[in-house]
Design brief:
Elements (H helix, E strand, L loop, with lengths): L1 H46 L15 H13 L4 E2 L6 E2 L2 H11 L5 E8 L6 H22 L4 E8 L9 E7 L1
Parallel strand pairs: 3-4
Antiparallel strand pairs: 1-2, 3-5
Helix pairs in contact: 2-3
């Protein structure tokens, strides 16, 4: 009879201990589970090929996914300037980049690297690329909530063959 009472006491205390452990740990586990699901959704959405028919989905705290989306947009030469001029040509792709930058919920530094082609003198290309980088920096400062934006013009040195503008996001 004592053995049965000890077994019942042991089972009840085990169930009680398990209940309180689950009650304490469940919110944390559930939160982690939801964050994992959101990250997987974001990766799936950013990998889908029909970008034009969907809205840009960038979850908060996601500078990595934001940078991926921006790099995909820049492959199509989203940022354009007038020929031999530093005047920025505003287009829908630039609005998408601003939208991505405004949806980031963490503090980031946006670095803008501007390059130019090899036509003209080296000094002229360096000045033109710096002016373009500064114009783009001013545009992003006006349109986004970023506090740190760095603009560097490289001219025709370190020239990129496919892109004239490169944007990088770094968490701080």
């Amino acid at each position: 009879m004592r053995i049965i009472i000890l077994l019942i006491t042991f089972i009840l205390s085990s169930i009680t201990l398990a209940y309180f452990t689950i009650k304490e740990k469940a919110p944390f586990i559930y939160t982690q589970y939801l964050e994992d699901i959101e990250a997987k959704k974001a990766l799936l959405v950013s990998a889908k090929p029909y970008k034009k028919s969907r809205k840009v989905y960038i979850p908060s705290r996601s500078s990595i996914l934001g940078e991926r989306e921006i790099q995909k947009l820049l492959q199509g030469k989203a940022i354009q300037f007038s020929d031999n001029n530093a005047t920025l040509v505003v287009n829908p792709s630039l609005y998408k980049i601003v939208n991505i930058l405004n949806h980031l919920n963490e503090k980031v530094v946006l670095s803008i690297e501007a390059h130019s082609n090899t036509t003209g003198s080296i000094q002229q290309n360096l000045l033109l690329s710096q002016q373009r980088a500064d114009n783009l920096k001013n545009y992003f400062r006006e349109k986004t909530n970023l506090t740190l934006v760095v603009a560097i013009g490289y001219g025709e040195m370190l020239s990129l063959k496919e892109k004239l503008i490169k944007l990088n996001l770094k968490r701080i």
